Each structure stands twice: as C-alpha cells, then as structure tokens.
Amino acid sequence: MSDHLDTSLPLEYQSEQSRLNIFGFWIFLGAEIALFATLFATYFVLSGMTAGGPSQLDLFKEKDVMIETILLLVSSFTCGLAIFSMRNHNKNAMLAWFIITLLLGAGFIYFELHEFIDYVHEGATMQTSAFLSGFFVLLGTHGAHVTLGILWGILLIIQVVRNGLNPVTSRKFFIISLYWHFLDVVWIFIFTFVYLGGLIQ
Amino acid sequence: MEHGHTKYPIGHIIGFLLSLAMTILAAIVALRSGLPKPAIMSIIGVLAFMQAGMQLFMFMHIKESDNSAVQIGNIIYSIIIALTIVLGSIWVMHN
Amino acid sequence: MLKIKKLPWKRLSLVLLSALFLLSGCDTSNIAVLNPQGPVAQKQYDLIVYSFWLMMIILVVVMGLFIFMVFKYREKRQAADYVPPDHHGNKWLEIIWTAIPIVIIIAVAIPTVKANYALEEVPKGYEDEKPLVINVTSADWKWIFSYPDENIETVNYVNIPAGRPVKFQLTSAGTMASFWVPELGGQKYTMPNHSMELILLADKPGSYQGRNANFNGEGFAHMDFEVLSQTQADFEKWVKEVKGSAPKLTKKDYNKILKTGLVGRMTYTGTHLDWVETPHQHNVMNKKEANTKEHDMEGMNMDDMDMSDHQH
Amino acid sequence: MIWTCPIINTKGWEENRLKLDEFFVTGEPIIYVTEAGIALAMIGILFYLTYFKKWKWLWNNWLTTVDHKKIGVMYILVAVLMLFRGGVDALMMRAQLTAPNLKLLDANHYDGIFTTHGTIMILFMAMPFLMGLINIAVPLQIGARDVAYPMLNAFSFWTFAAGCALFNISFIIGGSPTAGWTSYFPLAGTEFSPGVGNNYYAVALQIAGIGTLITGINFLVTILKMRTKGMTMMKMPMFVWSVLIMCIIIIFAFPVLTVALALMTFDRLAGTHFFTMAGGGMPMLWSNLFWIWGHPEVYIVLLPSLGIYSEIISTFAKKRLFGYKSMVFSMLAIALFSYFTWVHHFFTMGNTAAVNSFFSISTMLIAIPTGVKLFNWIFTIHKGKVKLTSAMLWSLAFIPNFLIGGVTGVMLAMAAADYQYHNSYFLIAHFHYTLIPGVAFACFAGLHYWYPKMFGHMLNEKLGKITFWFWMVGFNVCFLPQFVLGLKGMTRRMYTYQEGLGWDNLNMVSTVGGVLMGIGFLVLVWNIAYSIRHGERDVTGDPWDGRTLEWATPTPIPPYNFAVAPVAEEIDAYWNMKQKKTPLYKKVDVKPIHMPNNTGMPFVAAVGFGLGGFGLVFSWWWLAIVGLIIVLGCLAWRSFDPDKGHHIPVKEILETEEAARGEVV
Lengths: 201, 95, 312, 665
What we know:
Chain A is mostly helical and 201 residues long. In chain A, 79% of the residues lie in helices and 0% in strands. Chain A has one domain: Four Helix Bundle (Hemerythrin (Met), subunit A), CATH 1.20.120.80. Chain A contains 6 helices and no strands. Chain B is mainly α and 95 residues long. Chain B has 2 domains: 8-64; 65-95. Chain D is globular. Helix content of chain D is 66%, strand content 1%. In chain D, helix 6 runs parallel beside helix 19, helix 7 (197-225) runs antiparallel to helix 8 and helix 9 runs antiparallel to helix 13. Chain D has a two-stranded antiparallel ribbon with strand order 1-2. Chains in contact: A-B, A-C, A-D, B-C, B-D, C-D. The interface between C and D is large, with 97 and 99 residues. Chain A: One of its GO terms (molecular function) is cytochrome-c oxidase activity. Chain A: Its EC number is 1.10.3.-. Chain A: This is Quinol oxidase subunit 3.
C-alpha cells in the first residue's frame, strides 16, 4: 500500500490503510447486525416461556430503563461531538467529549448491572426460565460490547495523549465512534422490543 | 466530502434532539396510550427503525467515504438477513 | 475409432454401477419405501417414482451432452494448430436452459404442495371412518404405545386394525426420536413438551418394521418396533386378551420403563396418560377448535400455550 | 464456600466439574494405538527441528509470517492432515458396517467417530483446504501484493488452527462429542451427553468460526478495493467472483453459528434453558439456528469449488469461460436463495404444510442457477481443445457426479417425499454426492493446478491419474448402493444392524468403495512425497499456459508478487497479455515496495485461544480467564504498535526479477 496521504480528505481518511480499515469495520458491523438479529430471534421465540417464573411485567421498571436509555443517547451525542472536534483538529475538545462519552457509558453499565442484581435478588436468574436466559444473554452481550468499548476507548485515549492527533490515531477514534453509535442503535431496538414490548399490557 | 465543519455542530444537535423526541414518543405511545397491542408494536417498531436510520446518516457519516455505496448496500442486505432470521425463526418455531 | 487399450474406463465403470443401481431397484418387494402398504405410503411412493423418472430425464440429457462434448473435443481428436474460437456466450442458449428448468421445477413443485397438504388430513375415502388414536411416547431407546380408548399400553410393539386410519400422537419423554414405519408412510419427530399427529393406515393385515430414524444416543440402533396390522375382529380379540391377562400399569413400572436402557416387549392394562399430561398439540392449535381448547387448558399445565396471546 | 456470582449462580458448574481420572479416555485399544502414533510423530518432529537447528527458521518463516502465500500452504497442510483423520474415521465406520452385528466398535465409540468424521470433514478439511487455495490464488489473480489486512489473515489462520487442535485432542483427553456433527438437543444437553465431549464441539467450533468470519471480511475488502488497474468487477476471474460471493455468505451466516454455539455453551456450562426440556427451553430452536447457518455453510464450501472448476475447465479447454455474466448472476442467485431454504433439514419436525411447502419450493429454486452453471461449463468445453491433465479430470468428473447429487437434491426437496428419505442412507448418499464431487474433487483439482506456484514443481501426472481413478470408481461404488440402502429403511448413524433386512451385500459393496478411496488418498500422499524429488520443475512460471494473472508471476513467487502492478484490460488478463505480447512492466516503473513486517501476535493469541478453550471445556474458569487475558492482551499490544512495515529497495527487486526472468527491459 502506498502510504502517501491524500490531504484533501478529513484526517481519518487520509491514508489508504485508514480507508481500508474504516470500510472493513462497516462490513464487520454488517456481521454484528446478523449476530444481534439471532439473539433477538432467540429472545422473541423464548419471550413467552416463563416456566412459572417472573414475566416481563413482574420485572421491568420504567424508571430504570428510561435512565439507561437517556444515558446511552447522550453518550452517542457526545461521541458525535468528539468526532466533530477531531475534524476541527481540536485535540483537547475531542478528548474531553470522548471521556464524557466513556463516563456516560460506564454510568449505563452501572445502572444495567444494578438492574440485573435486583432481578437476581427477586429470584430471576438466567437459570430460572428460558425467557430470562434469552433476556440475560441478549442484554449481557450488548453490555459486554459496551464494556469492551470502554476499555478499548481508554487504550485509544492513551495513544492520542502519547502520539497526538495523526492519520493513524484519528482513524482509530473514527472506528470506535462507529462502534459506539452502532451499540446505541442496538440499544434502541432492545429498549423498543424488549422493554417497551414487555411492558405493554 | 466537506473538509472542516462550520464552527457549530448543527447536524449533531438536531440529530440528538430528534432521537430524544423519538425515544420519548415511543415510551409514551407504549406505556400511556392504551392503543391495541399490534398498533403500539408497529408504531414503536417504525420509530426504532427511523431512529436507527437517523443515527446511520447523521452520526455515523455512512454517506461520506468513496465506498459509501457498498457500505449502504451492506447495511441494507444485513437488515434483510436480520429480518429473515427473526421473522423466519418466529414463523418456523410457532407452527 | 477408440483403441481397446484406451477404453473409457470412466464411462464403463459408471454404466456398470448404474446397472447395479437399476437392477436392485427392479424387484422392489424387499425395498420398504418402494413397497407401500397403505394410502399414505402410496401417495409418497407415487411422488418418489414421479420425481425419479423426471430427474432421470434431466440426468440422461445432461450426461449425454457432457459425454458428447468431452469426447468430441478431446485434444487428441483435433489438429495440433487448432485454436478454439473465442465464444463469450449465447443469450438464446442461456434463456433456454433457464426456462426449461423452471418448467421442470413447477412440474415438481405442484404435486409436492398438494401432497404436503394432503398428508395432514386423513387419507381420502376414509374420512367417515372413526380414526383409532394411539399415543406414542419415545424414551431412551424404547417406544411406549398407549391406547386411550382401549385403556391398554404396550412397549416396543403396536397392533393396529387394518383398513382403519390410525392417529399417532407423537411425543417424547427424553431426547428427540423420529417415528418411522417405511411401508406405512413417512416419519415425524417426537419432541419433549410437544405432541404431533401422524396419520398412518395399513390396507391389509401384515407385520411391518418400524424404527427410530433420529439418532438419540447409544441404544439408537436397537430402538425399533413391530407394527402388526390385524383384521378388526382379531384386533378386538387381542384387546380383550390383553385386558384379561396383562398386569395393571403402575407409576413405579412406568418410571422403571423410562429409565435409560433397552427393554423387550411389554404389555399392560391401563395407560400412563392418567398421571402424565399430554403436552399441547404442536401445530394443531391453529386448527378450528383452537379457541375452545384455549380456555380450559389455560390454568392446567405448566409449559407454555400458543404464542399468539403472549406479546413479543 | 463456593463463590456465587450474583448474576450467574454456579450450581450448574459444580456438577459439571470433572474429576481428574476421567481426564484421559481409557479402554479402547484403537485409541491407545493412535495415541502412541501421535506421540511418536511429535517426538520425530521435535527431534528433526532441534537436531537440524530449524527452530529459528520455523519462527521467522512460518509461525510469524503474514505472507498470504505461506498462510495458504499452512492451511492446506492442516487440511490434508484432517483429510487423513476424517478418512480413517470413515473407514472405521465402513468397517463396522461391512456385515451385520459386527463387534469392531461399540456404540459409543462409533457415535464419537461419526461425529468427528462429519465435523472434521466439513469444518476442518473442506474449509481450510479452500481457504488455503483462496489465500494462494486470489491476491495473485487480482494483481495485488497481499490481502487488505495481512496481520488479520495470519490471525485467522492461527485462530482456526487453535480450534482445530482443540477439537482433535478430544478423543484422547476427555472423550469426543457423540451427538453428531449437527449436535441436536436435548441429546447434546448435559442431561443426555454428560461428558465434556460436547463442550469440545461448542468451544472448538466457536474459536474456528472466529477465524473464518475474519477471513470473510478480509477477502471481501481485498477483492472490492485492491484489484489492479483496469480490472473492473466484470473482468475479474470467475474464481475471484466465487470467493467474493462466498465472503458475503460467510459474513452473514457465521454470526448465527457464533450465537448458536454460545447458547449451547451457556446451556451446558451455566445451566440456562435455551434448548433444555425443563424451564421452558425449546430443543427445536437449536435445530433452527444451527441450520440457518448450516445451509449457507454448505454453499460457502461449494461456491469457491465452482470457481476453481471454472478456472480449470476454461484453462484446459483452451477457451474462454462460456457465459461469464450468467455464471456471475447464477452464483449471486445461489447466495441469495441459500438464506431461505434452511427448514428443508427438518421438514419432519411438525411444521405446518404451509411452512413445508414454502421451503420445498425455495429449495427447488436453487437447482435452476446450478443447472445454468452446469450447462455453461459444458458449453465451455464445446469446440474447445480438452487436455486431460489430472486437474482437468477431477473437474470434468465433478459434472456427472454432482448432477446425481443435484437431482437427488430436488427429490429430497419435496417435503412429502422427504418424510421417507429424511435421516435415511438416501440422504447420506445425496449429501456425499454433492460434497465430495462438489468440494473434495475441487480441492484435489486446485491442489494439482496451483501446486507449481506453491512449491515450484508439479505433481506427477501419472500418479495423479491413478489417484483420480481410484477416487472416481471408489466414490461411486461406495455411495451408489447407499441410495438403495436408504430406500430399504437403513437410517444414518446406526452402529450395527440385524441380518435378514437385505442390507448385507450393499453395505459390503459400499465398504469396498470406501477402501478404494482410501487407497486413492495413499497414492496422493505418495505422489506429493515422490514429486519433491522427481517432480517436473516449473521453470516458466506458467506450466499450464494459464489465462489469469497468477501465471504472470515467476516461480517461486517473490514475496511482493508483482514488481509493478499489472494492467488488466480484458477478462483472462494474462491470456490477453500473451496474445498481444505486451511486456509485463518496464524497468523504469519499478519503485520501492512497502511490505508489512512479520508478527508473532497471531500465534500467541492462538495459544491464548487454545488454553482458554481448554479451560472452558473442563470448566476450569481460571484457565479460561487466563486465555481471555492473553487474547485481549495481544489485541491491545497490536493496537499500541501498528507495524510500520519495511520497504524493499528497487535494487533488490531488480535482482530477484532478473534471477527469475532473465534480463528486464
């Protein structure tokens, strides 16, 4: 790959390797959509199988879910602002917004874990029924992705602090922003079909 | 592709407010409206897909790079596959 | 002319082998699937033979074309300096060999769909006959047949009256098995917490071999049973004999039978249906009487009802 | 006090923990012999490496390589080893079934063998063999220097290798899975398969699946973004088209397998209720998810093989491929339909007539594009100049044999008739008639065809033909009788049968066929060994008068493939260049070439996957966590030092080119 930089493009698209990586990540997001679709299919098929255990109505609380959703929505917004600042070559603003994004993500994880622990105390573990198995694995996979994103984000922050904003670090931030927005999209579907779907009666 | 935005991220703010509005609207329709179940499910389903589309175009700059055609094609095809898996599984497993 | 040394071994071996295949196919008496003994198996047999000859036509056409091309255009048969033409394709040929397969697929699809729907109902000509209901429960490596009307139960063999449709309600007490009596008709799976209906019918009395077609562990190869179809009179005589001589089935006996392992033939009076719930019908739910059954089953058994009333 | 984690209670894990004496599988003489054989082979290799001081060479050239050509060779090496093991499994099964009531293998051992036979042949032989050929040929055919993500290419191979190794040790340590390669529930659950066998299945396939998914993404981007100047999409070689479409299927099918295996792992290790009988689980959901991946998977292995056939038939018929556009659209149609036919694997699971009818028709529709391709190959041969090399023989034999597989497929697609065929030997014969001519023949053909580019010498043609005829005759003798056995009521996975059912002599004939195929494999191994010394050297780099760009490279192929990226004007770019006698490149155009550095990270990550997987299999959670940390550590380490790569100076390029081609103008 010739490593000349096409300076007419935004920083993260300038080297050819960057363009390939970003394109490859979009393809990977296609695969992730198939992965979460299968988890949703499993949840929908098993959502009625409560086997005598607590059902959606007994467990879900509107307040908790709204907090988690707002947290993730705002984090998606601040992540957009981080990329916006990056495009303006404003490293400090980008880092600030990005750290806020990760903190909001951590907040989301905190509330989600808190919600899970409440369910376990009410006796609803993933061993209780097929519905709960499906619920915990779907939410757990999304939560694991968010946690992985936060760790990955911390690594990237260290790299930017050390190497500054250059075509390589900016492409990595652009990719993690795609990842973060994608997780927010997945959460929108969880919020809609799992929580709202479960609370309707 | 535009290089260096204007000073003020208007696109992002509109996007954020839109997604907030759609989320709250979905919550209200689902929890307070008392509509029949299938009606609610379809409304909040459409809202979810609209919000997803909005995220793709406003926040994820899907249209931007020179291979945007393939990226959008890839996402559309993956949605078709996702629907096949979800609706296919439900249809097969319930009879 | 083809030199003997250079005999087309490939063609020779293939001709020999297809001869073997066709020869053994002729006397179909001992080929179970091609020896239907009931209307259900007959319908499937007709479908198989119909599709076999249709596919044989395609096979002969394409094979012939292929052999002709390979032999005609071998390097040895052409001049040394022969340069093949630069063909790119031919629109008409492409249309022909797309259209004809579509026609063949339609010719195969229509009888298939008709047969799929026909197999769900009682065979034609027997609608007014009251079908005999037999509950089939598969367990790890044995078959348990319960006769709810006659209130008797047999293990690893089942007697049925000839000329009368039999509704087998298939369910499983453990792993998934597949209830298959080749001479009487196709197979269906037995699944835990589900009940599925398979309608078979034997035209005349006789003994037919039944077998589990879905692998379910070590004893799978021995998990077969005999289907003995008798005249209506003999069948009733057999039921009276069993009622007189066979021991009463107790819960302890039944649990001993269910234990993993192979057992021989057994006969009991009374059935395990008294204390074991029959799970809800797999897809019979959306038949006409769905809603009436809906209410009285609501509180009765544990596992889940029809999905439709649960939101998802 | 056992630490109970708040979310997942550990009751399920306790019963699952194994006592050490159940660690090693005991009691089977055949397993002792195999263990001794493997131990001897390992000692032999270690001795050879240390005695001839080859460890450094191994580490620099093979364990840390990111060169697509070397990775391809490693894939094929693993595939041939797995073909040997899968073949021996098959021969043992055939031996046991030669006559009724034989006692060579008991039920449990036989069940373990047919499970490993199925899994190994499809996932650990067919996939790597094709990935090997793809790795070698695709970058060269599109005139590229390497794949889009060289390090990820190595990472995929080593992850696959870790999964393959983990699966293969199961028959020695802990016991192999015994629920069939489809591993249906509730049989595959802890209630009916208590041992660790099925844990191996769930974890090893998961790890190997990660490698395949990454390869799918890697080659999709390579083909879409790194074609040489002038090679538009409709001018790519047909093999590259088939690989592109295979990647699309991989990207959308393998995530379903990942989820299905993860749910199986949760059910077996964490006591969840996805597929269990109790707790509201639905065993049928496993079959559904498995086959949503399963059917596209058989098209993943079939499509590249069709691409190989297109290349070889076109080359040895000395004629351009007939109907290029319709060949591309038929493959796209096959790829699209492959996602809508999975229920034909369980017509008999009580679906309504509507579901069965829909999937009957969708399955039949796939026969149409396949038929179009068959006619196009036949018309490529039309007016051609057919040269019967071994590669061509394998490719030609594909057409009649696959035809039998195809037509029986349409017969099986009829749901009403499938009630009689399902799980019988008719089905066994059908899918062997599609997989062996469809995939195995293509692997052999591709091996013969690209062997000179891989190793610099050709395989002996006479021995090649002997192998071919043993396989051609043996394959038909083995599987034609099985159609009849199926109709006689013999079902798959039976370790023995009674006499008097009329199955005896057909099984005997079938075993004879199996032995013939075994002999054919031995002749192939002998051919490979023999050709190392006596094989005809490939001097020109274009032994078969090829049509596509991989034949434009000298042999042995320099690490950078092309000194200057070739310009492709037409389909069959190299053939076009040869006709017009255009020079490959001018000396003045040669510029320093940027090449990626070797990296040890993929190998270390594979060790992490292996350890972690082994820990998961035996529920040793500390080992699983250690494995995970190694893998994540490798990814983080890689993220911190994106390899700058190195440049090959012009002087060195010209030296290698002149050594290979004589003077460069």
